[in-house]
């Protein structure tokens, strides 16, 4: 009987954890836009489309990049979209109404110049 209770409890914990992670990932789903004016040659309008675990970045000059992400609580780890920097970037993220904002924790790539100057607006 104790084994059945333990198994049931463990199953419920795993179900709740996976539902929470899926909810966080799907809450990012959609397209966001921002215009960067403080990054020199990276200035321009960017569109980022998130789907669970993946994103597509549409940058100025018809440049498109693909990447992946994972979420743990309010932290997001991103890989891509640049072929020149393959290191992961870690950020805190916050969704407030129709706005998505990022705060850099660690990222050796130039993603932060696009993600952190100001919030991205859901379109």
Give me the secondary-structure topology.
Elements lengths: L1 H27 L1 E7 L7 E8 L2 E6 L3 E10 L2 E5 L9 E8 L2 E8 L4 H5 L4 E3 L1
Antiparallel strand pairs: 1-2, 1-8, 2-3, 3-4, 4-5, 5-6, 6-7, 7-8
Description:
By secondary structure, the chain is α+β, with helices and mostly antiparallel strands. It has one domain (2-122): Beta Barrel (Lipocalin). Helices cover 26% and strands 45% of the residues. It is built from 2 helices and 8 strands; from the N terminus they run αβββββββαβ. The chain has an 8-stranded antiparallel β-barrel. A hairpin with a 2-residue loop joins strand 4 and strand 5 (75-79).
Would you state the CATH class?
Answer: Mainly Beta
Main sheet, how many strands, which sense, barrel?
8 strands, antiparallel, barrel
Low-pLDDT stretches? 2-25
Number of helices, counting only DSSP H or I runs of 4 residues or more: 2
User: In total, how many beta strands?
Assistant: 8
Features:
disordered N terminus, single chain, Lipocalin, alpha+beta, 123 residues, eight-stranded antiparallel barrel
Care to give the gist of this entry?
With 123 residues, the protein is α+β, with helices and mostly antiparallel strands. It is built from 2 helices and 8 strands; from the N terminus they run αβββββββαβ.
